[in-house]
């Protein structure tokens, strides 16, 4: 494609061919916390945790393409730059407005294409980009900044982003020197340490034949109080103040039980609890019985050994039974006493524990599974972003600025 056919990139609109060309700006999106902006040039590389990406590989691709790294470990998205993305990746020179405040302010100022607006101060240019896109293609933004280095940086960015033809940037302290404009704009936004000092000059800048809107952005309630007084003295009406906070909601899926299902579930839990209680008791009793049985077995084993030894002694004495009649009577008495000792079988006590376990197992019944309907709900997390600033709005009404009929007659009488 020849240089004469290359479409100039702008933050105010998308490219018609939606194609990345050499020299274009691209937002590299890895995730919501990892984004950046690069200018595509042949021979250069973009490096990140996933690997290396050649700029030459990006040329010719469409915006929104998912591009893999040279290592194959990850990928990124190539996005067309917009004011919303610029707010997330811009270099911070001052505190900036984020999308929650930006959208809220633009809605209450009734901004639309073709309007003219004043912004003071420019800062890092976050809000300036959104305003310029909203007023394009025929509207105009007059933005003021008292710090010369910030003015130079913002002017360069407006030129690189294709907004210089709809943005006029001046280095000026409007609190002391005013805007030096009259009957020219439809809306005014003041992000100043002392906005009440610029209210009188802002009133002159409004178009005298139209209703205008003004907004101030202040972090302290004391600033709001003094600004309200200044606006009232200058004849502004419908003065309102808002505090815009960001709240992120967590999405959760929970079961939705009917009353009958909940009662059935509770009955099943109680039934399981009662069923588990005798099982636990039987296990405990079974272990205790096993220990007793083991002790009895050891005792009987020792008795058997004693009985065997005694029988061996009796056999050895049988040979002398005729010569010693008294030994015969003794031998007859001793075996009888030995054999008359009761022997308890080790298995005698086991059937009771086995029987109890078998009975309990037979009583156990499988629990019926209840599958409730799932419901998607949102929940606020424990931590929230705190206060940023107060937004105050007021209305400029030409009818209130013109002298009343009584004032006109008094002026004519004096003349």
UniProtKB/TrEMBL annotation:
Q: Where does S-adenosyl-L-methionine bind?
A: 145, 191
**Domain tRNA (adenine(58)-N(1))-methyltransferase catalytic subunit TRM61 C-terminal span(s) in chain numbering:** 74-395
EC number assigned by the record: 2.1.1.220
Residue ranges with Polar residues bias = 318-342
PROSITE patterns found in the cross-reference section: SAM_TRM61 (PS51620)
Question: What SUPFAM superfamilies does this protein map onto?
Answer: S-adenosyl-L-methionine-dependent methyltransferases
State the protein's purpose: Catalytic subunit of tRNA (adenine-N(1)-)-methyltransferase, which catalyzes the formation of N(1)-methyladenine at position 58 (m1A58) in initiator methionyl-tRNA.
What name does this protein carry? tRNA (adenine(58)-N(1))-methyltransferase catalytic subunit TRM61
The gene designation is: TRM61_1
């Amino acid at each position: 494609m020849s240089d004469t056919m290359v479409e100039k990139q702008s933050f105010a609109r998308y490219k018609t061919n939606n194609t990345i060309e050499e020299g274009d700006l691209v937002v590299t999106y890895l995730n919501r916390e990892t984004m950046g902006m690069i200018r595509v040039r042949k021979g250069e590389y973009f490096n990140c945790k996933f690997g290396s990406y050649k700029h030459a590989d990006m040329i010719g691709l469409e915006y929104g393409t998912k591009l893999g790294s040279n290592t194959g470990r990850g990928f990124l998205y190539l996005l067309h730059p917009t004011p919303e993305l610029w707010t997330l990746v811009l270099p911070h020179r001052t505190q900036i407005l984020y999308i929650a405040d930006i959208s809220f302010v633009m809605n209450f100022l009734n901004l639309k294409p073709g309007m003219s607006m004043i912004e003071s101060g420019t800062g890092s240019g976050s809000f300036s980009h959104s305003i310029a896109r909203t007023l394009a293609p025929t509207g105009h933004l007059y933005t003021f900044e008292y710090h010369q280095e910030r003015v130079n940086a913002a002017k360069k960015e407006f030129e690189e982003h294709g907004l210089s033809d709809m943005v006029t940037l001046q280095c000026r302290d409007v609190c002391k020197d005013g805007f030096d404009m009259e009957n020219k704009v439809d809306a005014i936004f003041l992000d100043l340490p002392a906005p009440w000092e610029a209210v009188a000059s802002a009133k002159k800048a409004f178009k005298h034949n139209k209703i205008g809107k003004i907004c101030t952005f202040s972090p302290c309630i004391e600033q709001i109080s003094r600004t309200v007084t200044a606006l009232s003295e200058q004849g502004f009406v419908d003065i309102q103040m808002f505090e815009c906070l960001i709240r992120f909601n967590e999405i959760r899926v929970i079961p939705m039980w009917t009353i009958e299902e909940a009662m059935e579930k509770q009955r099943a839990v109680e039934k399981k609890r009662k069923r588990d209680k005798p099982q636990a008791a039987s296990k405990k009793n079974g272990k205790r019985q096993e220990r007793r049985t083991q002790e009895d077995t050891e005792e009987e084993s020792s008795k058997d050994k004693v009985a065997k030894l005694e029988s061996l002694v009796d056999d050895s004495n049988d040979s002398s039974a005729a010569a010693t009649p008294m030994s015969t009577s003794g031998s007859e008495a001793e075996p009888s006493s030995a054999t008359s000792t009761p022997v308890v079988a080790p298995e005698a006590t086991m059937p009771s524990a086995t029987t109890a376990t078998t009975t309990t197992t037979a009583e156990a019944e499988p629990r019926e599974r209840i599958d409730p309907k799932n419901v998607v709900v949102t929940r606020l997390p424990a931590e929230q972003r705190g206060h940023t600033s107060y937004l105050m709005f007021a209305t400029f009404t030409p009818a209130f600025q013109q002298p009343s009929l009584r004032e006109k007659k008094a002026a004519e009488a004096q003349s």
